[in-house]
Amino acid sequence: MAGRDLRALFSTNDRSLDTAEAFTDRRAQWDLVAATLAEHLRRTVAPGFDVEDLEAPRSNVLVLHGIGGIGKTTLSRKIEAALAGVGERPAQWGAPSWGPGRIVPVRIDLARAAGNDFERIVLTIRLALAELGRPLPAFDLALKRYWEAQHPTESLEDYLRRGNLAGRFGKQLPQQVQSAMSDVAQMLLLPGTVGSVVGQVTGSLVRALRERRQTVRALAGCRRLADLLEAEPDLDALSFYPHLLAWEIAQLPADKRVTPVILFDTFEETGDRTHRDLERLIQRIVWLMPNALFVITGRARLQWADPALQGQLDHTGPTAWPGLAAHSVPPARAAEARRPGRQILIGDFAPEDCDDYLARRLTQDGQPLISAPIRAVIAERSHGLPLHLDLSVLRFLEIRRTRTPEPADFDTDFPALIARTLSDLTPDERHVLRSVALLDSFDLALATRASGLAHQAPAMRLIERPFVRENVFGLWPFHLHGLIRSTIRSADDQTDDRWSPADWTAAAERALAALGEQWNTSTGHDRLLLVGCLRQGLAVARDHELTLGWLADAAWAYVSDSVWEPLAPPARPSPDTGMSTAADALVELLSTLARRQHEHRETTARRLETVAATGLLPADLHEMAVYYLAKAHRDLGRSTESRRGMQYVADSTSRLAPGARRGLAHLSRLAGDFPTALDTARTLGWAGRHLRVEGDVWWPHGDMRRAATAYQAARDEAEHHGVAGERATSQAQRAFALAFTDPAIADDELDLADHLIDGLDLRATRLTTQIAALVRDAGTPGPTVDDRAELLRTEAHSSGITAAQAALELALAFHHAIRGETGRITADIARLQTLSAASDGDYAYFVDIAHHMAGLPLPTASTTRWIDGEEPVRAAWRALVQARQA
């Protein structure tokens, strides 16, 4: 039913162009419904139509789809009322002209009430037909059998009353079902006492049908009735009963003919792309009732014509659903290609629909005039808004007058969108709209505070607008339509109450303050709120060059938990010009700390060096950058650089000074100076994670029980302070230590470690647990341990974490020592020596331990300073190997 796009037609002198207009007029949709219904009526009364033909393609579906809030539900209700002749039809809708015959519309909102389940859907369709005033014995008998099997303690009448269906459709159905029972019992000459028992009636009827008795010839025409009555009366069987409804409707005399028009609204609630159980049952209704017309409204087009869904749904592909196919039809059905499609988009377009719309909007010799690269830019920029697509088409034609359009020509906003959006808003609503355009998402309180208004009424009115979307599961439930937001922020606003740059800065300051208030006034340790406020606050401060304020304290709170959720805010609305403000530097700092869990430490070090060199951060945050840069250097085996950075922070008054002193203790340990590391650990306290550092000292000595005890105490201390990252790391280290002594205990400890890590982004800690699992399995036959180690070696190397690489080689040495594979032990030792040499001599004690495990003498005197000398360490590690061998 699409017409010519006159604006496009009169924008060019090129008469070879074909144009098609957007489908946005509700009258056009009504006309399509009326035309589809008329065609459906002609098809169902044609001589060759057979309601029991289960193989013929189906053309009894019309789909109206679009984004939420575009008016699909209202349209569905209007169509139902117009078909039922209830109330006044919209003035622009023409009178129906589909000829004689009674139309029975029934609208089913699939999002209604807790449990608009499949039973209710089937019952609603049957209830709508109850106004015929007569039983439908084939269906009613099957329904009665199903109901008594599935609802033995609740009558159908009570269920309809409880679900408010009786009030909507009347109370005729239970009587009609009982009447159908009596009629069939009389047909079978059953006594009255037997005729009231559904099992006896259906059993007798099935036998009569199988024996082709003349007494049941009225029902014998339904060829699949006996099969359905014999099937187990479960939900799957119920989904096939609509076939009986279709057959009963087809038996009505010509002067009693009815055509059900079933309107399924909010179809997106039936499931998603991976869970299609309810959709499969509903599709079965549509397929089994070819004499009913289905008008489906939802947010997305039906995919039933997609052959890739075979197996998820009963009937798929363009042959089964020719009207639902996206584009082409076989040449043999070229005439059908000229008919209007059966999937009509309302409002915003999905990306694939944007491309399809643009490809069809302007054509020349049957080919799209707008090239695919240009269509891609327009579709992305439009966020699916039809008006943006229309304006882009006109821009295309305007540019085409003088030169060939290019994709860059369409990476732009249209001020007309602002005028269209703001046209019917009050001044206060426009003020709130501009304010919340600074935010990714918001709630009423945040919108009101950011706008600086004293009351929430304008924000409450604004969120009812169709360009404000709602995600009930979001931290802040509301967000603007993407195109509306980007246009308001960046386009040339020519409205009378447009904002000046100073107005935007003031609004940004209010928005940043409002986010800070929400974080500062929250009760408890709300990590989700912290991350949300940081992400939005950093973007606002960065884009408008604001001072950090509360963001500095929030950054410290983010770092303190060692959870490392992704934190990078959206890109700037204008091209990035590098770091020029403290907010720029803080964005880069926190983004780098989160990204280091997924990048090589070399990349982390390089980014942190850049941040530290800017000098843009206040002193305490500058020390944060230096501290984590020193950690990255340590992970990379650059002890000298790491020690320099750690000492700088340790000598300061920074909140990370205890952590830096811990870093110095780690560096002493890595250098093999265990007495110094232990002495330093005892001075660190909780802030310096003293217990975990002690565990790190004891396990290289082979004293796994002492190390595990220290790690457990560290884990409990972290739990007491509510630091999830430290708790998980301490537990992973405990599992690693115990894996050398008792595989069974290590199993439980690793399970706990995995549980504590779940939801955290801790790459090094996860590597520790994977290496601990190798240690647990050390000595087992077969190549499994070595194969797993090879995969881990690749991952550890890609992380740039030298400690993980060294621990992995040590785990392999333990495995090979248990198996007595001297040649492989030699290779393990060689790799450890290479790692140590590349790390300024750190990790040399790992080479010593590998020799001790295998009972091999050290080739040269060790430089390691053990707590009680070398011999106890040698004996302890050799004993661990012998114990596992035994």
Structural summary, described in words:
This protein has 886 residues and is mainly α. It folds into five domains: 85 residues, no CATH class; 319 residues, no CATH class; 74 residues, Arc Repressor Mutant, subunit A (Orthogonal Bundle), CATH 1.10.10; 81 residues; 110 residues. Helices cover 56% and strands 5% of the residues. Strand 9 and strand 10 form a beta hairpin. Helix 29 packs antiparallel against helix 30 and helix 38 packs antiparallel against helix 39. The longest helix is centred in the middle third of the chain and has 20 residues. The termini are far apart.
At a glance:
The chain is 56% helix and 5% strand. It has 886 residues and is mainly α.
Protein topology:
Elements: H1 6-9, E1 17-19, H2 26-44, E2 61-66, H3 72-84, E3 102-109, H4 118-128, H5 137-150, H6 156-162, H7 165-169, H8 172-187, H9 192-195, H10 198-210, H11 217-220, H12 225-230, H13 235-238, H14 242-250, E4 258-265, H15 277-288, E5 293-298, H16 334-337, E6 343-346, H17 351-361, E7 362-364, E8 367-368, H18 372-382, H19 386-400, H20 415-422, H21 427-436, H22 444-451, H23 457-462, E9 468-470, E10 478-480, H24 482-490, H25 501-520, H26 527-543, H27 550-560, H28 582-595, H29 601-614, H30 619-635, H31 639-650, H32 657-670, H33 674-681, H34 690-698, H35 704-721, H36 724-739, H37 743-757, H38 763-776, H39 784-799, H40 802-819, H41 822-838, H42 844-854, H43 870-885
Parallel strand pairs: 2-5, 2-6, 3-4, 4-5
Antiparallel strand pairs: 1-7, 7-8, 9-10
Helix pairs in contact: 5-8, 17-18, 18-19, 21-22, 22-25, 25-26, 26-27, 26-28, 28-29, 29-30, 30-31, 30-32, 31-32, 32-33, 32-34, 33-34, 34-35, 35-36, 36-37, 36-38, 37-38, 38-39, 38-40, 39-40, 40-41, 40-42, 40-43, 41-42, 42-43
